[in-house]
Amino acid sequence: MTIAVPAQIAERRSLKIDFTWPVLITFALLLCVLVILPVTWLVIYSLSSVDEVTKAREFTLAHFANLFTDPEFVNPLITTLVVAVSSSTACCVIAAPMGWLVARTDLPYTRAIRALVTASFVTPPFLGAIAWEILAAPNSGLLNQLYRFVTGAEQGEYLFNIYSLPGLIFVIACYTFPYIFVLIANALDRIPGDLEDASAILGGKTWTTAWKVTIPLALPALLAGVLIAFLQAMILFGSPAILALPAGFHTMTTKIWSLFQYPPKPELAAAASLPLLVVTVLLLRGQAMILGRKGYSIVGGKGADPRLIKLGWFVVPAMGFVAIVLMMPVFLPYFALFNAAFSPIATTLLTPLNFTLHNLHFTFFELSSTQVALKNTFILGSLAATLGTVLALVISYITAREAVTGHRFLGFLATAPIAIPGIVLGVGLFLSYTRPPFVLYGTLWILLIAYITIELPAAYQQLQSAFRAVHSELEDASRILGATRLRTLRDVTAPLLRTSVIATWCFIFVSVIRELSAAIMLFTSETKVVSVLIFDLKESGDLGAIAVLGLSMLLLTFTVVILMNRIPGFGGTRLRNT
Amino acid sequence: MKRRITRRDVLKGASAAALTVYASPIRASAPAAEAVTPALIEAAKKEGRVVWYTSVDLPLAERVAKAFMTKYPGVTARVERSGAERIFSRISQEYGSNIRAVDVVNSSDAAHLIVWKRGGLLQPYVTEDVAKHYSAEHKDPDGQFASFRVFLCPIAYNTNLVKKEEAPKSFKDLLDPKWVGKIVKAHPSYSGTILTATFQMSRDIGWQYFEKLAQQKIMQVQSASDPPKKLALGERAIMADGVEYVVFQLKEKGGPIEFVYPSEGTPLIIGPNAIFKAAPNPNAARLLQQYMFSAECQQLCIDHGGLRSAHRLAKEKPGRTPLSQIKLMKDDAAGVEKESDNIKKRYTQIFKV
């Protein structure tokens, strides 16, 4: 008898292998390849050059010396800083009061306002930039035409010139303000009403309370938002390519991109990428420090609903303010795109008389790249969303349950790509995957890798917080009853996380559709995606086709967003949190 | 005396060098001309598709592809359009990574064909039309490429914004302060047309012209087919360069746009077509090449596209100024090839982008 028992156990083990470890190790390795490989190649390239005689790679600091002395690079560097500082400041000035109005006052239609902010968040910034060209190009722009019509100003006079530094800053601010708005509104949503009640009991008037209590509590979120807005402005590629180049100046991203034109200078491009990477890392550290202190804002306990300030007659200017702000990223650009799609000339006002389906026909039945691009975008969007969600799910499981030693490092790797701007990642992936052992350039795989890497941090953060909400005792029960870790994950944890998982999937899908800066470095003719196709069309000035493709892109995006909001118990809050 | 002889020798040498681009009789070894045979059509249909990398303005390129598909149903032609310089770097990158996607190429920078030919990338193939109806200066002696399209890179203006008598007559006129902020111009790092034109203009009127033009607050676009579109929108009054054929298209549709063939001469652009040796669809590529050099396709490009043609049977459209009446700058693909990188670099220094 005593001999038989160990034999039985041995038999059972050989039948039921626990795949946990192999799976975990595979994912860890995968993550290392995804993140570390491109960055390593970037560093190697930026610090070396090919000797013309021996063809060997040699160490040099020449690229960095070049970068910080040649005005060809110094000027874009300065421009980038100016753009990032001014647009994040502008965003802050606009988004903070708006967030406060929506979260803390009795302003009507707040659901609609939040939905419209989401709309400006999912609108690809390059599409917005093109729409703003149609609106505010100095001579043909619709708004300038209106200005001349109303004031009787001479031909050649204009109100706005979008091809300028202020124009660029404005358009970038239009599509980065949602980041600040969301953080501010969420922070204000969470501030408990008791603190304000206390202030009121002590005799503080409404405005005193707002000034002395509410606003200071929201300040950390505001600072974090400003940092993110700064970062976004710094790493954008599409808007400066569309608005700065015609005006005759570069930002760092367009400069890096131009270094890949023939004859390509990958070493310089790698060197020019690294400052963006370093600044991003520093800013994110700063943000983490600020957000780390945020805890004090909810010290007062929980329960009481936020106290809404009565606006009274002030509701009229407040509503006007919100309406004007939302005109800029949403109403006006969408109108411009619609006009360009159905009018014979993009900047001629659409009337029933000149309505035409020509652009629609051209885009869908004549343009031979449309089908390929739509197909690729759809395949990549769904694959990246699926694989990205799985990857984020496993990693966040490991880190939330501290399943393996070194889980912290895995968590760090999964968040690290957030510090890699799209165009920098594009350069890194190009350098990594155009050589053995991984020759992936020219296939959809390289784009898939890029998209997954870019979207991983957000997906990981979403799912990790979801995991934290599910207590591990349910899993423990399953393990005690004999299930393996994987089976537990599948049968117990996954069903509990369903809505978060679906939300993450949708989030990645939408983000992939609007990604341009990495794709522009990695596409080939057969692996073109819609965003790249739009950029191609932009360079040859085919505005009608751009408008049609852009509107189709928005349609697809909104379909996904609305479906996501239909999921019971989800209600759209998740997207606002990202 | 001695000095003059030397100079003349140099000139002779230069023109001889320019000629050798197309006509080096010693090494000439073009294959025999081939006709469209039922076997070729069958083989092309079996492949089912063909990919044309081109810098022809998109709607025209798609129109040519569509006409080809109508004539040879069963073969899908896909157009991959970008600026000629982009197409060139795209192909370099793809071939560098062992990707063979391109079947047939068309470039508005004839120098690219020299580079590809030297690299042994091109497939010698001569269509009957090319053999019979194209003059020697419009075909490679080794049968590797021929001039698919010929066009100019003139000045043009928006007639609503500029009166005819005030319009510039020459490139130098564009330097007048009254045009500050009113000029649109394309980029030689994107467009082969502009690279070729910049080469010819810097050779004939000097780089000082560009240095002064850069002071005019020009609007810098990428593609050479964009400046005419910006004129038609009314976004700028004058284009300093851009493709002639899109101006023809817009003007003949009633757009407010008019040509100026500048007094210094107008840059002449030749856009050759070639088949790649490693084409994934070799037979469909040959069939497309056959179609594109036919009088039928060339006439379509003239009538609907505003291009000019090297095909002897193709007829110029009435109402357009014939090439013979326009003062042209001399094209020199070999010269462009040598200067290409330098032009891009210098241009970027002058115009900052």
Written overview of the protein:
The complex is a heterodimer of chains A (578) and B (353). With 578 residues, chain A is mostly helical. Helices cover 73% and strands 2% of the residues of chain A. In chain A, the strands form two sheets. Chain A has a two-stranded antiparallel ribbon. Chain A has a two-stranded antiparallel sheet with strand order 3-4. Chain B has two domains: 31-150 and 269-319, Periplasmic binding protein-like II (D-Maltodextrin-Binding Protein, domain 2), CATH 3.40.190.10; 152-268 and 333-351, D-Maltodextrin-Binding Protein, domain 2 (3-Layer(aba) Sandwich). In chain B, 42% of the residues lie in helices and 14% in strands. Chain B has helices at residues 2-20, 38-47, 58-71, 84-96, 111-118, 128-133, 192-204, 207-213, 226-233, 244-252, 282-292, 295-305, 333-351, and strands spanning 49-54, 76-81, 104-106, 122-123, 145-152, 155-158, 183-185, 219-220, 238-239, 257-260, 268-276. In chain B, strands 1, 2, 3, 4, 5 and 11 form a six-stranded mixed β-sheet that branches. In chain B, α3 links the parallel β1 and β2. Mean pLDDT of chain B is 92; it is low at 1-26. Chains A and B meet through α11, α16 and α24 of A and α3, β2, α4, β8 and α9 of B.
List the helices and strands and how they pair.
The complex is a heterodimer of chains A (578) and B (353).
Chain A: H1 4-15, H2 20-46, E1 48-50, E2 57-59, H3 62-69, H4 71-104, H5 110-122, H6 125-136, H7 142-151, H8 165-190, H9 193-201, H10 206-235, H11 238-247, H12 252-258, H13 266-292, H14 315-342, H15 358-366, H16 368-401, H17 407-415, H18 422-433, E3 434-435, E4 438-439, H19 444-469, H20 473-480, H21 485-496, H22 498-514, H23 519-522, H24 530-539, H25 543-566, H26 573-577
Antiparallel strand pairs in A: 1-2, 3-4
Chain B: H1 2-20, H2 38-47, E1 49-54, H3 58-71, E2 76-81, H4 84-96, E3 104-106, H5 111-118, E4 122-123, H6 128-133, E5 145-152, E6 155-158, E7 183-185, H7 192-204, H8 207-213, E8 219-220, H9 226-233, E9 238-239, H10 244-252, E10 257-260, E11 268-276, H11 282-292, H12 295-305, H13 333-351
Parallel strand pairs in B: 1-2, 1-3, 7-8, 7-9
Antiparallel strand pairs in B: 3-11, 4-11, 5-11, 6-9, 6-10
Helix pairs in contact in B: 2-11, 3-12, 5-13, 7-13
